[in-house]
């Protein structure tokens, strides 16, 4: 007899074999959905002991309908689709999976940086069109002795800095929640927000989406950046005010942007961002490798296993159950 129910609100994986292999031996049975609304989340999860969610809106109204839930696990790092305070009011820990794709995102960040700075897509397009130039798309800057500024200094930012330093870049960083000692340990100078913007030749965004960080890259921020600087974002699309970025690129306020995340996804086919040589857009795929995909599903299920086996949860984000 099944002792517990785990509700999976939505998922983009081929199957749930890994989760079932971990949780079914503990007596879990699975109910799954493709929830697009909070009402659908509430209906699917009302009798669940545990909830796994990827993109579905796990709102306060939905959480209020949960009768038995003891844990909510977000497939991924960001938790902006889950109302953390509503879960806290019901004493439900919300857990994320921050460590499944650190290297993949860092690799993708450097790939975007190199692509936009070296103008790789434009050059490839010209070669395919029959144009062969040994100094194309001028000007192209060298990376040595340039400054990369990281906005946020979590695990991915640290991995990005390590890679960037191998290219000869000097690193500075902004994160009010990280000490100077931690920055220094990684060879990074801690700076304030305005200094990050004004000194960086490349700004790499590694921020969660919160009230404080939404649209932190706005008209004022772009005006503070160098006209020769580049913006790379592999964190959360909402940290950038899209129309302000478009204006900054069109007016030459910054030299370029490379984005894996956008405020609205998928990107509209007629978005000006897709029409400009100064912008590269990829499809929120920085996290992806086959290995990372497997880790994401495994690590999410293991958090549920920990709770129901009396072990300590590793990645609580709303403070419930932390000692």
Task: Give a short overview.
By secondary structure, the protein is an alpha/beta fold. The protein has helices at residues 17-23, 38-45, 60-64, 84-89, 102-117, 120-128, 155-166, 180-185, 193-199, 219-224, 242-251, 290-308, and strands spanning 4-8, 28-32, 50-53, 71-74, 94-95, 147-151, 170-174, 189-190, 202-205, 230-233, 256-259, 279-281.
Order of helices and strands: EHEHEHEHEHHEHEHEHEHEHEEH
Based on DSSP secondary structure assignment, what is the total number of beta strands? 12
CATH topology of the largest domain, by name, is Rossmann fold
Portion in helices: 25-40%
- Classify the beta-strand content into a percent band: 5-15%
Could you describe the 3D structure shown?
The chain is of the alpha/beta class. It has two domains: 4-99 and 290-308, 3-Layer(aba) Sandwich (Rossmann fold), CATH 3.40.50; 102-281, NAD(P)-binding Rossmann-like Domain (Rossmann fold, 3-Layer(aba) Sandwich). The protein has twelve helices and twelve strands. It has helices at residues 17-23, 38-45, 60-64, 84-89, 102-117, 120-128, 155-166, 180-185, 193-199, 219-224, 242-251, 290-308; strands spanning 4-8, 28-32, 50-53, 71-74, 94-95, 147-151, 170-174, 189-190, 202-205, 230-233, 256-259, 279-281. The strands form two sheets. Strands 8-7-6-9-10-11-12 form a seven-stranded parallel beta sheet, with helices on both faces. Helix 4 (84-89) links the parallel strand 4 (71-74) and strand 5 (94-95). Helix 1 (17-23) runs parallel beside helix 12 (290-308) and helix 5 (102-117) crosses helix 7. The longest helix has 19 residues, at 290-308. The radius of gyration is 21 Å and the shape is elongated. Keywords: NAD, Oxidoreductase. It holds the Pfam family 2-Hacid_dh_C. Residues 110-286 form the D-isomer specific 2-hydroxyacid dehydrogenase NAD-binding domain.
């Amino acid at each position: 007899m099944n002792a517990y129910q785990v509700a999976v609100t939505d998922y983009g994986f081929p199957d749930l074999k890994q989760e079932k292999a971990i949780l079914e031996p503990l007596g879990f049975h699975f109910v799954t959905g493709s929830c697009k609304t909070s009402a659908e989340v509430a209906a699917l999860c009302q009798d669940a002991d545990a909830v796994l969610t990827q993109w579905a809106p796990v709102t306060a109204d939905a959480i209020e309908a949960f009768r038995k839930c003891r844990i909510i696990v977000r497939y991924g790092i960001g938790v902006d689709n889950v109302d953390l305070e509503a879960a806290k009011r019901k004493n439900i820990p919300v857990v994320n999976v921050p460590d499944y794709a650190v290297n993949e995102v860092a690799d993708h960040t450097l790939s975007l940086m190199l692509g936009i700075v070296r103008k790789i897509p434009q050059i490839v397009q010209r070669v395919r069109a029959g144009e062969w130039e040994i100094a194309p798309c001028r000007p192209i800057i060298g990376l040595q002795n340039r400054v990369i500024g990281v906005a946020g200094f979590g695990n991915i930012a640290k991995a990005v800095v390590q890679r960037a330093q191998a290219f000869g870049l000097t690193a500075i960083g902004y994160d009010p929640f990280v000490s100077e000692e931690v920055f220094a340990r990684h060879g990074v100078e801690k700076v304030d927000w305005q200094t990050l913007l004004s000194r960086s030749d490349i700004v790499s965004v590694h921020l969660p989406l919160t009230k404080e960080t939404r649209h932190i890259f706005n008209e004022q921020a772009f005006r503070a950046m160098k006209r020769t600087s580049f913006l790379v974002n592999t964190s959360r699309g909402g940290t950038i005010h899209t129309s302000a970025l478009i204006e900054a690129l069109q007016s030459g306020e910054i030299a370029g942007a490379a984005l894996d995340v956008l405020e609205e996804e998928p990107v509209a086919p007629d978005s000006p961002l897709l029409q400009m040589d100064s912008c590269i857009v990829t499809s929120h795929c920085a996290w992806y490798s086959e290995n990372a995909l497997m880790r994401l599903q495994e690590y999410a299920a293991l958090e549920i296993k920990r709770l129901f086996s009396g072990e300590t949860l590793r990645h609580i984000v709303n403070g419930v159950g932390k000692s």
